[in-house]
Amino acid sequence: MKPNLTCFRRSAFTLIELLTVIAIIAILMGLLIPVLAIVKEQARKAEAKNDCLGIVAAVKAYHTEYGKYPVGGFSATGDLKIGGVDGDNNKLFSILRARDAAGNPGNKYNPRRTNFFEGRMASNPAAPKSGYAESGSSGTIGALYDPWGGQYGIIIDADGNGEVAVPYTDFTAPIQAGCAVYAMGKDSAIGANGDGRYKSSGTASGDVVSLQQ
After folding, report:
1. Where would a tag sit more exposed on the chain, N or C end, judged by fewer CB atoms within 10 A?
2. How many CB atoms lie within 10 A of CB 59?
3. Kind of pairing between the strands at 208-209 and 179-183
């Protein structure tokens, strides 16, 4: 009995069919990758917003505990500005985390050793993001980094006038607050492409600010 070659041929994919399937998969992947990038960026912004609000809450809790802001050891004639575009924030977090480290020797500025801000260590020491840079890291030891690899910027009312000036021209300056925190986003610049504005023509930049409007 001869095999049914017609049935055999019909059960196999032709070259054109295979190429069509591959093309469809490629198109779907091309549509999916940008969506995944948007979702990841939204997740980073949500994480940064939570951190910004958490840092503000930690500074306020310190004020409640000690009756003053955690600005001991810093030389600031007006608002204390650290991290972000103003250097490193590690000394502040030494105080808030009750660490005997730079900025808080012997827990001088947190003698009750209260941990006001619990954070996590950055998972990649070579390029710290989303956490503290610890021993062996290429970043500043003890500094808190945002999801894009920049240090959170923090402004504290060191002169006690009940106001802080944030580095965004479209926020009313000064702001009536004891503390403000920001993350510069993936472009590592204040505003959109460094224009210094949180919103340009009504469109928000990629920055995350505790005083977001």
Report:
1. N
2. 25
3. antiparallel
